[in-house]
Structure formats: C-alpha cells, structure tokens
UniProtKB/TrEMBL annotation:
It is found in: Cell membrane. Keywords: Cell membrane, G-protein coupled receptor, Glycoprotein, Membrane, Receptor, Transducer, Transmembrane, Transmembrane helix. This is Probable G-protein coupled receptor 141. SUPFAM superfamilies: Family A G protein-coupled receptor-like (SSF81321). Pfam families: 7tm_1. Residues 36-254 form the G-protein coupled receptors family 1 profile domain. InterPro entries: GP183-like, GPCR_Rhodpsn, GPCR_Rhodpsn_7TM. Its main location: membrane. It is a multi-pass membrane protein. It comes from Pelusios castaneus (West African mud turtle). One of its GO terms (molecular function) is G protein-coupled receptor activity.
Amino acid sequence: MYIPKEIFRTMPGETRSLESADYILITMYTVAFIGGTIGVIAMSFFLVKMNTLSMTTAAIVNLVVVHGLLLLTLPFRLYYYISQKWIFGLEFCKAVSAMMHIHMYLTFLFYIITLVNRWLIFFHLKDKMEFYRKLHAVAASAAVWVLVIVIVLPLFILRYGKEFDKSYDNRTCFKFHRELEKKSVKALNYVMIIAVVCITCILLGLQVFIILKVVKNLSGSVWSHQEFWAQMKSLIFIFVIIICLLPYHLFRIYFLEHTNEAQLENYNEICLSISALSCLDLLSFVISGSHFFKQKIIMLRDKYACC
C-alpha cells in the first residue's frame, strides 16, 4: 500500500536517522531555550525595581510571561526532533504548535505597545504613559490573556489539524501543512503576512527618523547621552522583529503556493524556529542596559576613531 510521504516520516514503530534540518532545529531551539531562560530570569530581577504603573513595564512583564510559556514547550520540541517520535498525544502536539504562533504574534504586539508608548513620550504627546492603579495594569494584561487562553487557544486546538486527524500518525507532530490548502486559511495567512511586513516597515522608518532627530539635537559625543541609548534600545525591538519574525513571514509567501513540496516543510520549520530566537531579546535588553556594556562600546568607538 502506498503511504504519502507528507503524512508519515517513517512507518509506525520506526525512527529515521537525524537529517541536516533536524540538527538545525535542535540547535535553534537549544539556543533559544538556554538564552531565553537566562533572559527571563535576569529581566525578572530588573522588573522588581521598575515602575509597576508604567505601560511599558506592563508590556515587558507580559513579554516575560509569553517567553516563559514558550520556553516551557521547547523541551518537548527538542525531545521530538532528537528522538524522532512524538509520545505526548495529538492534542498536546496542537497546543505546543499553537504556542509557537501565539508567542510570535503576542511578542509582536507587545513590541508595538512598548514602542508606541516610548514614541508618545518622545514627541511630548504624553508626559508619561501610566495606569492609574496597579489593578488597571493587571486588568489590561488579564484581558489579553483571557482572549488568548479562553478563545484563541481552544479554537486553534479544535480546528487546527482537523483535516489531518483521520490520517495522523500519533508518533508524528507539527505536520499540519495540509491546512494551508484551505482558501480561508491561506487568505488569513496572507493578511497576517501583509500586516506584519507593513507594520515593521513603518516601525523601522519612524525609529530611524527619531534616532536621526536625537543625534542632530545632541551636542558632543552621542554615545555619552542617555537619550541616545534609550532610542537604541527601542531599535533593538525592531531588529528582533526583522531578524527573528520576518524570515518566517517572507518565506511563508512562497510556501503558501508550494505546500505539496515535502522539502519545503523543513525550510518552513527552520524559519519558524528562528522566531523562537526572539526569546533572546530580554537577555539583549539586560546586556545593552548595563554600564559595563556601554563603556565597552565607547572604548571601541574611541579606539577606531583614533585609527
């Protein structure tokens, strides 16, 4: 009997040897897990000292939470790619798969909130962006998570992979590409791709404009001014989007029209794994905010200026 390659990686009970794509995925998720865990722990200590009424702080707290939830699922992905078999059931497979996409778009959302808050203050449209009470900050965060946990996640688990359930090998996971053949799913993907790409271009353009404006207004070396470093921190958010989130969406454009090509599934998974590297953002924020890091940057600048 012929068994389609896109349904089974191997015959039930068998495991195949690791391929190049598997090694790349294992490396990506290992780096994301280790670096992300360190970043979440380090940022948690910083948050204790930050203004709890600030909208930026609330966004960062939620960013820590969403990174933490993704990090909890990464060991299961690593086990699967190392052992080449899934032993945790179809529904949990869907939940782990859903978490990757939920993490990607919530990270994007919290980045936008953080950047908009900073820009409103920079352009003096608001003196400060704060909640009136801590309860308001908690309520706003809870509203986002209720929407995700009560509505988005259950719908994702119930509908995602439904076409695949009848022919699903319970030792295989993350093979839901057949869903993309649906016109409604394909249309939704195109909408998300266009939205992410357009918003990213707008964010980058505005941030570059602000940095140039700051450099023009500052006297002396810009490297010694706190305002310049604050804008560079904002630029890190956009760099993370470009490096970690855009590759998946740009490759998705091609993948949506070639879902039947088995090899492209590996490339799609690799691009998705790159999005998990956004968990390293918290570590980069901690490092970039350290006095030691700023001193080293200034020393390097002075060294090359002398040359």
